[in-house]
Write a structure and sequence with these properties.
Ferritin, 5 helices, 75% helix, binds MU-OXO-diiron
């Protein structure tokens, strides 16, 4: 069983993971609109990963005998000034999600639920990787000034990325 406090906190995080999927799809749509197909592919895959994060938690709540309640998702930002702005906002969003996961972990610790703490470790580790990936992309974009042949090469590289379902 889950305490009411923990169930509410998990439901809030499920909503945030689904919103992340929605936001990354919106970023992907913007990138398509400016012919950055590789970056669009990259964010399409990010969106699929966020869907996985949401569903992993969705299933966990059920495994724990809890109740999932889905809430509205809100409107994701649709327009950006540049590819760099997209990635910077994605990094900012990931930092917000990291904070949110940490707060959720704090609730699990306070409620003394060891199975939830163990489950959340995966998300804690995942956030380190998510933030690092975005930071590296920002560094690369700055290196090439976010334009020209460098941008096309990077776009081409990101176009090769494929979604590999996680465990
Ligand atoms: Fe599910 Fe990118 O955090």
């Amino acid at each position: 069983m889950l305490t009411k406090k923990l169930q509410d906190a998990l439901n809030k995080q499920i909503n945030r993971e689904f919103f992340s999927e929605y936001l990354y799809l919106s970023m992907s749509a913007y990138l398509e609109s400016i012919e950055m197909e590789g970056f669009a592919n990259y964010f399409n895959i990010q969106a699929q990963e966020e869907h996985f994060h949401a569903m992993k938690m969705f299933n966990f709540v059920h495994d724990k005998g809890g109740r999932v309640i889905l809430k509205p998702l809100g409107e994701p930002k649709a327009n950006f000034k540049s590819v760099l702005e997209v990635i910077e906002e994605a990094l900012e969003h990931e930092r917000y999600i990291t904070k949110s996961i940490n707060e959720l972990m704090d609730v699990a610790i306070k409620e003394n639920d060891h199975s939830v703490k163990s489950f959340l470790e995966w998300y804690v580790d995942e956030q380190v990787e998510e933030e690092a990936t975005m930071s590296k992309l920002i560094a690369k974009l700055k290196l090439i000034n976010g334009e020209g042949l460098g941008l096309l090469t990077l776009d081409n590289e990101l176009g090769q990325r494929k979604y590999t379902p996680e465990e």
